[in-house]
Structure formats: C-alpha cells, structure tokens
Amino acid sequence: MTGLHRSSSAPTRNALPSQELLDDLCSRFVLNVPQEDLQSFERILFLIEQAHWFYEDNSVEQSSSLKSLSLREFTSLMFSSCAALRPYIAHIDDIYKDFTSYKVRVPVTGAIILDETCERCLLVKGWKAGASWSFPRGKKNKDEEDHTCAVREVLEETGFDVSKLLKMEDYIEVVIGQQRQRLYIITGVKEDTVFAPLTKKEISEISWHRIDELLPAGNDASSRAINGLKLYMVAPFLAPLKSWISSHQPLAPKLDGGVKGMCVWKAKNGSSGGMTTTEIPATRAGSETQQPADNGPGKSFRSFRFDPACIIQSMEAAFASTKL
C-alpha cells in the first residue's frame, strides 16, 4: 500500500522585519516620547518592549511570512537599526541582562477574584507553551497607585472591571525575591460572569478553580497543586488567603464537593498562536512602568558612558529627516 504524503499549507514564518518597518516602530515608540523617558537604558528598553508587543500583535499577525521574535532578538534588531542606539550595540548583552534584572524588582499589583461562596478563585494562564497559572496582575506604571494598577491589569487580562468591588483595606501582600506583590481580594463575583482578555497573546485561558484543590501536595508548594497545576505565582498567597476567608466567615452556601474547576474562556488554538475566541485589540500598559527604589544602572553599565543628550540629539535629527 502506497503511503500518501500531504504537504503542509502553513506558510513559513522566517522573514525578519524590513528596515522600513523597524524605522516605523522606532519612530512610533522611541523617537516621539518625552525626553525624561530617554534618560536611562531601562526606560528605553521599556519603550522597545512596547514596540515588540505591537510588532507581535499586529505586524506578525497581518503577515504570513514575518517571523515571531523574542524580546531579546527584537531588541538587538532595534539597536542595530536605530541610529541613536547603534553606538551601544556592542554592549547589548549587558544592557539586556540588567534590564531583565531591573524588571523583576518593579512592584506588581492585581486581584484575587472570589465567587459568591468564596470557595473558588479566578486564575489566568499565560500564553506561552508550558505557562503557569496566576492571579490576574501586572507591573505598576510610573507614579501609579496600587489599586489603580490592579483595576487596570485585571481589566486587561480578564475583561472584568473590579473598580466598584475593590476595597482598599482588603489585600494580601508578599515579597517574592526583590519584588513586592499586592493582590486585592474581590468577593461576590457571579460564576456566570463573562471573562475575556482585552490584550492579544498574553492570556491563553481563564478558569474558576476551587481553592481547596490549589492547596499544595507534600513539599512541592512552590510549583504544583494537588491537581497538577503549575502555581509558581499562586502558592505564596494561598495560606494568607485561606486565613482571610476564614476570618471573614462568608455566609454564602458552600459548593457541592463534586464541583471542580471550570474554564470560562480559552484561546481557540491554545497558547501556540492563532486568534482567541474574543480578541479585542488593545494597547498593553507598561511604557511608564514604575521604577523601584534602586533605579540606578547595573555595574555592567559603568564600563562605558551613557549619554542621553547625544541620544536625544540623534533622535531629533532622525525625526527631522522623516519630515523632509
């Protein structure tokens, strides 16, 4: 019996962005910003990160040949193509390493959303393959208040507005590594509430999960729960959450013990790509991410001189040339 070979009709995504596209992204996200955003590499890389989101969410999605790039790859291309940043390309490894170290110190806020019985909580799963679950949350913008960030991030990741339910005094705060994380406790959310992320390629699934199933099994509290879910960002909040729920003694009837976790939204083609079931174009936050107290450049930056005035001058010249 002769076997039949079926060729794949999927397009090959191996084309790098053109110089014209990179120039457009540089002009849109780096050149036309307030000068205070050009005073450090940390701030510049946050701008480049926003350009990367736009590239992945729009350019790649609209082209069948453009290659999806990691932030590291995209950063190198931007430094190579932007005249103002090109002099620093030799130091890109140190610059990127210090940026990733800096990011994990930026404060994070969000919300623990509980159902009417306080026996279920809402978790979101990241987009990438093998992503872990977490409560909806994200990094604070510059000068942004904790509760304002929580409302914004929850809305972006779930499509649900918690502003009218949030109580300033009801929160759990932990420090993981060097990062402060504050999650406000939101109660009384109906099971049939409609959830759907407002950003693309950030969340792959949203589900209600029973809190008793999230309790860790054995000594593996930092990674997995009884039902095998990855809970790296959830586990530190479980004990204080149980204590908070116990002290507030919810009066709602308990769930039937047989009711398990319930998915309320999922990307059509999983976390590997494709359109989600309810995609709504939105600009991701993060271009004004708040700086932690220790906001000086890392030691690797001290081997050469960072000159913001030179960068600003180069950017102004580049911008002027686009007007000709």
Concise summary:
With 324 residues, the chain is an alpha+beta fold. Helices cover 32% and strands 15% of the residues. The chain has eight helices and eight strands; from the N terminus they run ααααββββαβββααβα.
Describe this structure in words.
The chain has a four-stranded mixed sheet. The protein has eight helices and eight strands, in the order H-H-H-H-E-E-E-E-H-E-E-E-H-H-E-H. The protein has helices at 19-31, 41-62, 71-81, 92-103, 146-158, 211-214, 235-248, 308-322; strands at residues 108-115, 120-126, 133-134, 137-139, 171-176, 179-189, 203-210, 262-266. The longest helix is centred in the first third of the chain and has 22 residues, at 41-62. It has 324 residues and is α+β, with helices and mostly antiparallel strands. Helix 1 packs across helix 2. A hairpin with a 6-residue loop joins strand 2 and strand 3.
Largest sheet: 4 strands, mixed
Along the chain, the helix and strand elements come as: HHHHEEEEHEEEHHEH
| Strand-residue proportion | 15-25%
**Number of DSSP E strands:** 8
Shape: elongated
Which class of secondary structure composition applies to the elements? alpha+beta
Percent range for helical residues?
25-40%
- Taking all Cα atoms into account, the compactness measure Rg is 22 Å
The residue ranges in which pLDDT falls below 50 over 5 or more consecutive positions are 1-8, 217-221, 271-283, 293-304
Number of helices: 8
Gap between N and C termini = 67 Å
Strands side by side in the biggest sheet:
4-1-6-5
Cofactor: Mn(2+)
Pfam families: DCP2 (PF05026), NUDIX (PF00293)
GO molecular function, one term: RNA binding
GO cellular component, one term: cytoplasm
